[in-house]
Amino acid sequence: MVDIFNKWKEKITQYVDLRFQLFKLEFIDRTSNVLSYILFTFAMLLFAMAILIFLGIGLGEWLCEVLNTRTGGFFATAGIYIILLLLMFALRKRLIRAFSGIFIRVLTENGEDDHDDDEKA
C-alpha cells in the first residue's frame, strides 16, 4: 500500500515539475516575442524619424524655392507638420485601439499557429 502512495507521489511530483517547466518556457517565449516586437517597433520608429526629418528639410527647401522666401518655406513645412499632428490627435482613439490590438495579439499568440504556417508553406 505504501508503494502505491510512493508511486503516486512520484508521478504528481513529475507532473508538477513538468507543468512548471512548461510555464517557464511559455513565459520565455511570450517575453521574447514582446521584446522582439518592441525592438522592431523602436527600430522602425528611428527610421521613420530619419525619413520625416529629411522629408521635412527637403519640403522646406522646395517651398523656399516656390515661395521665394526661406522663412515662409520652413513655416509652411511646420504648418504641414502641425496639421499632421492635429490629425493624429483627432484619430488618437482609433490609433490607440489599433496599437493595443496589435500588442494584445503579440501577447496572446499561440506557438501552434507558427507551426501550422510552416506546414502550409
Automatic annotation (TrEMBL):
The chain crosses the membrane at residues 34-59, 71-91. Keywords: Membrane, Transmembrane, Transmembrane helix. InterPro entries: Phage_holin_3_6. This is Phage holin family protein.
